[in-house]
Write a structure and sequence with these properties.
Blueprint (H helix, E strand, L loop, with lengths): L4 E8 L2 H8 L10 E3 L6 E10 L1 H15 L5 E11 L8 E6 L3 H17 L12 E7 L1 H5 L10 E10 L1 E10 L2 E11 L3
Antiparallel strand pairs: 1-3, 1-8, 2-6, 4-5, 4-7, 5-6, 8-9
Helix pairs in contact: 2-3
Length: about 190
């Protein structure tokens, strides 16, 4: 049986942004959650799922072609809160960002190119720019009375420039997922 690879396309964050976001794990020590290691913090642009070697090669070619048509752009992370919206109990703590036209255009261009080459289910129009900071341990979280749950709704101001897109592989290990950059492609300046 052919080995399959769990693939996603991501925006990796500058080191100073990762450091700042990782610091939130200390702010709510009572929160029953598994915090994402600093080096795993990223924005998923498109999750593709389990792909063959050949499909991974196709994805890398599509990403390379798409980024050559798009300029680098800025994302501003502006809030740390529970996510996804209206989910009760929440599943995550995340940092979200202002909707970026450049990212929406890039994502649409990527989806078009990918749909021609591989079978995957693109996300609908509900794309939210977010970085998962922690995954809530639901059973433990449900033990809190409503008024005991930590309030997580913090305004932040963390702008950064997106200069590249990465094709990444996620492998589940005993200590959690390990992410590997398969290819990185720079956007135009």
């Amino acid at each position: 049986m052919e080995k399959r690879h769990r693939i996603f396309i991501a925006i990796n964050l500058p080191e100073e942004i990762k450091r700042e976001l990782a610091g939130y794990s200390e702010k709510w020590p009572e929160l029953p959650a598994k915090w994402v290691p600093k080096d795993n913090l990223h924005i998923t642009v498109e999750f593709l799922g389990d792909l063959t070697d050949e499909e991974v090669g196709e994805v890398c070619m599509v990403v390379k072609e798409v980024v050559e048509r798009h300029n680098s752009f800025t994302i501003n992370l502006n809030k740390v809160l529970y996510g996804p919206p209206k989910k009760n109990p929440p599943r995550m703590v995340w940092a979200d960002g202002e909707k970026s036209e450049e990212l929406v255009d890039l994502k649409e261009d990527l989806q078009e190119g990918l749909l021609e080459k591989i079978a995957f289910r693109p996300e609908g129009a509900g794309f939210i720019i977010h970085i998962t900071l922690a995954r809530i341990l639901e059973m433990e979280f449900r033990k809190f009375d409503l008024d005991e749950r930590p309030e997580i709704n913090e305004d932040i101001d963390l702008p950064f420039t997106v200069e590249s897109l990465e094709v990444m592989e996620s492998e589940m290990k005993r200590g959690g997922p390990v992410y590997t950059i398969l290819e990185s492609h720079n956007l135009k300046n």
